C-alpha cells in the first residue's frame, strides 16, 4: 500500500502521524511511505531520519494526498485537506466528528474511509489510542502545577516537593482514570501528599495497589470534595463521564474556601472542564486567576511535548495502522476493535454517536 504522511497544519500542532521508527515498520511490511518535507521537524525528527527509515520525501501535501492509498495524520483534517481526500482512500487520524458537522460533511463528500483513533477500542473496553495522550497530559499536569505554584507565576510561592523540615504540596486529584493515576504517581514521585477522589471502587483498589497505599483514595462525594479542597495546594481535574460533558465538581463558591494562591489544573477542559470557573487556555497564556485561585486550563496539554506525544501515539497506532496497510478495509472484518474506529465510509456515517450528533437516526 502507498502510505502518505502530510505535515500537520492545525495551529500549534507539532506532532507527526508517523515517526521514523514507525515508517521503518511499514517499509518492512512492504509498503511505500511518502512523508512531506519537514513533517517531523516540530517533534524533533529530521528529513534525513525519515529517508534513513526508508521513506520518500515529498515537497507538498497535494502530491502526498494524490498518490496515497492511506493517509496517516494526528489531528482531524482541515478543510483544505478533506477536499483532497477521495473514494478508495483510508484516512487514519484523530477525528472527533460528533461536535464538528462541517468536517463530517466534508468527509462524507470525499467518500473516503475515515478511521478515528479516538473510537478504536480494546478488549477491556478502554480506548487504547486515546490513553497515550492521557498519560502525557496527566504527567504534564503535575509539572504545570509545580510551576504555577511559584510566586512569579501567580501561585502561593510553595515549592511543590518541599525541603527537609518543610512540607511539600498537598495534591487533590479528581478522577483516578488514566490522567488521574499518571498525575497522582508523578506527584507522589515528586514527594507530594496525594489524595485521589474516584467513583469506581475497583479503580480505587487498583490505585491503592499500584501505589502501595501511598496515594490516599476516597470515594468522590460532595462532602469529600468540600473537605479536601480546603486542604489542597493543587487540585487536578481528571474526571470523565464517557459521552457527556464533565461534571462541575468545584463550584465558584468553593474558591473562596480554598487557600489563596492555590492552583487548579483542569485537564478535563476538553470535555467542558470539571470546575465551574474553567475556560480553555493556551500554552502561550496558560493561566488566569479567579477569587485568588490560579486556573491552568490548557486544552491541548500533550502539544507541549510533541516528541514524546508522537512516539507514545505511534506506539499505540502502529499495530492498527499496519493491519490497515496490510489488509485494507478487510482489516476491519478481522478486528472488531479496529472496526469501531470506522466513522465514515463511502459517504455514509458508520458510528452511532456521530450519526446522532448529525441528527440522523441510527
Ligand atoms: P478515564 O476514563 O481514564 O478516567 C476518568 C475517571 O473519572 C474514571 O476513572 C471515572 O470513574 C472517574 N469519574 C467519573 N466521574 C467522577 C466523579 N464524579 N468523581 C470522581 N471521579 C469520577 O479518562 P482519562 O483518559 O483519564 O481522561 C480524563 C479527562 O482528561 C477527559 O476529559 C479527557 O478528555 C481529558 N484529557 C485532556 C487532555 C488535555 O490536553 N487537556 C489530554 C488528555 C485527556
In terms of topology, how is this protein built?
Blueprint: E1 2-5, H1 20-28, E2 32-36, H2 47-52, E3 56-58, H3 61-67, E4 70-72, H4 79-82, E5 90-93, H5 101-110, E6 113-116, H6 131-148, E7 170-174, H7 178-189, E8 193-198, H8 201-210, E9 216-219, H9 222-229, E10 234-237, H10 252-255, E11 263-266, E12 287-290, E13 293-296, H11 306-327, H12 330-334, H13 336-339, E14 342-345, E15 348-349, H14 352-357
Parallel strand pairs: 1-2, 1-4, 2-3, 4-5, 5-6, 7-8, 7-10, 8-9, 10-11, 11-13
Antiparallel strand pairs: 6-14, 12-13, 14-15
The first-to-last residue Cα distance is 33 Å
Q: Give the class from helix and strand content and strand pairing.
A: alpha/beta
- Radius of gyration over C-alpha positions, nearest whole angstrom: 22 Å
Which stretches of 5+ consecutive residues score pLDDT under 50?
Answer: none
| CATH hierarchy: architecture of the largest domain | 3-Layer(aba) Sandwich
H/E element order: EHEHEHEHEHEHEHEHEHEHEEEHHHEEH
Major β-sheet, in short?
8 strands, mixed
Helicity, as a percent range: 25-40%
| Annotation field: number of helices | 14
Q: CATH fold name of the largest domain, please? A: Rossmann fold
CATH class of the largest domain: Alpha Beta
Any idea what the CATH superfamily of the largest domain is called?
NAD(P)-binding Rossmann-like Domain
Strand order of the largest sheet: 3-2-1-4-5-6-14-15
Number of strands: 15
Average pLDDT, all residues: 96
Question: How many domain regions?
Answer: 2
Strand content: 15-25%
Looking at the structure, what is the overall shape?
globular
Each distinct ligand: nicotinamide-adenine-dinucleotide
Amino acid at each position: 500500500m502507498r502510505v502518505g504522511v502530510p505535515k500537520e497544519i492545525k495551529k500549534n500542532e507539532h506532532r507527526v502521524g508517523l515517526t521514523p521508527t514507525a515508517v521503518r515498520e511499514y517499509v518492512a511490511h512492504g509498503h511505500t511511505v511518502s512523508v512531506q518535507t519537514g513533517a517531523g521537524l516540530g517533534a524533533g525528527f529530521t528529513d534525513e531520519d525519515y529517508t534513513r527509515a526508508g521513506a520518500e520525501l515529498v515537497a507538498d501535501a497535494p502530491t502526498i494526498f494524490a498518490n496515497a492509498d492511506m493517509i496517516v495524520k494526528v489531528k482531524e483534517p482541515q478543510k483544505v485537506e478533506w477536499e483532497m481526500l477521495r473514494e478508495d482512500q483510508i484516512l487514519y487520524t484523530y477525528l472527533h466528528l460528533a461536535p464538528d458537522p462541517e468536517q463530517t460533511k466534508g468527509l462524507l463528500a470525499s467518500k473516503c474511509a475515515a478511521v478515528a483513533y479516538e473510537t478504536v477500542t480494546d478488549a477491556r473496553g478502554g480506548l487504547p489510542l486515546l490513553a497515550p495522550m492521557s498519560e502525557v497530559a496527566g504527567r504534564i499536569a503535575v509539572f504545570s502545577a509545580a510551576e504555577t505554584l511559584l510566586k512569579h507565576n501567580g501561585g502561593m510561592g510553595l515549592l511543590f516537593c518541599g525541603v527537609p523540615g518543610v512540607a511539600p504540596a498537598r495534591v487533590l486529584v479528581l478522577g483516578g482514570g488514566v490522567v488521574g493515576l499518571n498525575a497522582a504517581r508523578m506527584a507522589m514521585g515528586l514527594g507530594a501528599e496525594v489524595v485521589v477522589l474516584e467513583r469506581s471502587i475497583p479503580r480505587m483498589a487498583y490505585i491503592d495497589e499500584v501505589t502501595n497505599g501511598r496515594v490516599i483514595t476516597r470515594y468522590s462525594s460532595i462532602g469529600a470534595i468540600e473537605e479536601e479542597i480546603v486542604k489542597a495546594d493543587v487540585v487536578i481535574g481528571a474526571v470523565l463521564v464517557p459521552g457527556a460533558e464533565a461534571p462541575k465538581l468545584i463550584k465558584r463558591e468553593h474558591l473562596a474556601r480554598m487557600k489563596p494562591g492555590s492552583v487548579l489544573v483542569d485537564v478535563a477542559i476538553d470535555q467542558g472542564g470539571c470546575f465551574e470557573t474553567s475556560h480553555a487556555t493556551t500554552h502561550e497564556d496558560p493561566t488566569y486567576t479567579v477569587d485568588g485561585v490560579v486556573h491552568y486550563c490548557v486544552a491541548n496539554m500533550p502539544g507541549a511535548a510533541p516528541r514524546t506525544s508522537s512516539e507514545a501515539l505511534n506506539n499505540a497506532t502502529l499495530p492498527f495502522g499496519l493491519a490497515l496497510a496490510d489488509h485494507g478495509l478487510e482489516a476491519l472484518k478481522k478486528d472488531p476493535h479496529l472496526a469501531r474506529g470506522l466513522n465514515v465510509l463511502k459517504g455514509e456515517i458508520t458510528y452511532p454517536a456521530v450519526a446522532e450528533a448529525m441528527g440522523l437516526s441510527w
